[in-house]
Amino acid sequence: MNTKSYFFQSFAIVALAVIAFAGFKQILPDKIFSDAKLDSKNVLIDSLLLESVAKDSLLVDSTADKSGKEKIVYDASEGIEFPSETFDKYKGFQYLISFYEKLYQLEQNPSGHVRIAYYGDSMTDGDLIVQDVRMNYQEHFGGNGVGFVSIISESSASRGSVKTLYSKNWKIQSYLNVKKPISPFGVNGHVFFANDKNNTTWVQYEAGLNKYSTSLDNPTLFYGRSSKKGNVNFIIGKDTLRKSLSPNNLVNSLKVTSGSVKSFKANFIHADSIPIFGFNFDNGTGVHVDNFSQRGNSGLPISMFDANVMQAFNNSLKYDLIILHYGTNVLNYGTKNYSWYEKGMTKTVNKIKESFPGVSILIVSTADKSTKYNLEMKTDSAVVPLMNAQKKYALDTESGFVNLYTLMGGDGSMVKWVDESPARANKDYTHFNQRGAKAIGNLLYSQLNEGYEEYKKLREKRDGGVKRAIKKPKADSVSVKKDSVNE
């Protein structure tokens, strides 16, 4: 057979194979295909996730022998002990006591301040879910402003809570794909450089229309350490404020102006060597919630944070609760053994504890996700194993836990959220639309507030016991005080 004849024969075989594949695709069984078409534009998968998945087969599943009926009994903290729970229904309100106490103090003194950092993946892209958690807290506890905003994010164009425009000459480094950044990452997992000496590097912000975020309150720039100084020109209406950047500390801040503005533009001048992190917008009282979402994030990159830099951020921002909402990108690898993820996220939580001493931590589990099995969309077989792994490392690290899978309805719920009218989730059977995100945000707030209301009752019970003890005869006062100390 000559070469030309062989070529055409090979081509014919390939063509027939493609046609056969297309014809049989619809009748192939099990978890092979999904009708969902994912928008892969700008989707990143963090390098630590890929490395961890590669080592997956070397680990033993530590959740396999976890009994759902195992009783969890808490030790009293600050004299308060929440009722015992089982692993199946674990929420871990006990580990949110310091956060709840800050909310209680804020209720007593409205001039106080409570701050939440919400780390997530594409589920919180565009401020979805987070903006509804934020509005709920600001509705009940006060506060104005969207919190910390990065210079650039993938969702800048679609985010409604704040509008961002920026020049195309920013140099960006993200903790998803850079292990050794030029300068340590900021609290948002990014660092930016205005590295174009020939053209102005700029960013512009405008307040959105969301309730409690219709102005940019006390706009403040955060930037890092450098051996060279720089300048930034802030354009507010017809006025231009020229200010100097003095990058002497690990984390530095520069207030643009006091009070509130609707919009401003920042032009960075001769600042190419200075690491820029972003701007913070809040009125200084009430509750503020920062959205640190990143598409493709598994949560593992947080373990690369520089604890000293984070502590420097915390000295200014003072976080009381850190929420970790991940899982979407961890379901894509066909595994049901998530011991590797438990191990990695335990490291992540421990880094947060080191970086933000005393902060409460809340783990939000994966939501339901549907995949095609035998021509029918059903809950992906990896959802429950991943959710249980997330619950386990939440318990092991003494973190609160929200079971988003059961909260939205459990098995088959994503199909219902997609198929109902009006729909609350997208046709990828993974992500919520704006209507669904609002519902999820409300559900998250409701569970957190459920714990807070229970905390107030336990607190009142504790304080009532202390008051009664004080009124006892003097002979009993020594033992009462001793018990109080032990609590």
Automatic annotation (TrEMBL):
The keyword Transmembrane applies. It comes from the Bacteria. Residues 463-487 are annotated as: Disordered. Residues 473-487 have a biased composition (Basic and acidic residues). The keyword DNA repair does not apply. The chain crosses the membrane at residues 6-24. Keywords: Membrane, Transmembrane, Transmembrane helix. This is GDSL-like lipase/acylhydrolase family protein. It comes from Flavobacterium ginsengiterrae.
